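W.,

You were right to be curious about this one. When I first looked at the sequence I had no strong expectations either way, so I just let the prediction run and decided to look at it fresh. Below is the sequence, 378 residues in total, followed by the output.
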Amino acid sequence: MSDFDLKTDCRHVHWDRPCTPHKKRGKVCQTCDEYDPVVHRILMVKLAATGDVLRTTSFLPAIHAEWPGARVTWLTRKSAAGLFDGNPLVDEVLVTDDAITAARLATEEFDVVLCPDADPDAAVLAAMAKGKERRGYTRDEQGRIVPLCDGALRWLQMGLSDDKKQANTETYQHLVSQVLGFAPDSVREPILEPSASDSAAAQAFVQGLGIAAGKPLIGINTGAGGRWLYKQWTKEHQQTFLKLCNEAGLAVLLLGGPEEVRRHKDLLAFASGTPVYDGGNHNSYGRFAALIDQCSVVVTSDSLAVHVTAARKKPAIVLFGPTSSAEIELYGRGAKITPPGLDCLCCYLPQCDKAPHCQALIAPETVLAAVQQWLVAR
């Protein structure tokens, strides 16, 4: 191809269409000053829940620091793929329920395969992928999970032992840094970038609410996913919190997903006539992040919203019960609230017969005090 010098190692090459520098700026490969050679090909295999996937994006700066010139491919479930829209540190997203993904794993070779979870599905995909180097976990011929370093062994044991889980005092970021062989101080906030249109729409939406100038807007994530029943704050406490916010001169934006449609209707009816607004239950990840950008402080359970709030560098007041408060990294912004007088926290039980249960013991007054503390700090 003497008349067409294609630099096949450039990250801009799409193969089935012209590259962006050519299409948008008329560049040609022979003389292009945007040539960006791929030096390392990295595969990250991270499935799990969307919040767990999002918090693992905090390792992307460490990946690029360790392997300059990396091209990062992230393999995840289809439900989490939208988290990477606009992420400048991920070049490509593959999803598990796609035959093309299986073909890619069978034919391509990566310089490094990273698998930070002892999840059997993730580990078998990591084992299937061709890699010169592997970090984290893989899966052997008998279906056993194989930790590839001492840090991975420790994280595996913590996932299998309630006692080790409850005794832990380190964050997920610190623990998984050891799984993947990174320096903990190379980890940053998660990355979730709303598009310009999402940001503009969220700003226009909040401006259209007619909130008085200077009145802080507090976000409250009303749900917690369906896996652990008592991660969710009680509706009665949420109602009381809305009342206390109104008395304190605060506006509130309800944040949640499709599972919280009924909850939002009930809360809006309870708070009728006060500055409580519905942020919607069917937002994209980008729109959800853009709405959080409009809030001064966000109140949430241990859920996706924690990591979205961290990504947008907003203070989060996080309510804990059945899951580990130690593992959650707030990056110095916000507060963790655990119920008093319980020795069974961090139980990871789907539900329990305690009465009152852990979330019922977190008083709305305590949450409001934490919110007000961070409003003053800001």
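Here's what jumped out at me. The longest helix spans residues 364-377. And, maybe more interesting for your project: The mean pLDDT is 95.

Coffee later to discuss?

I.
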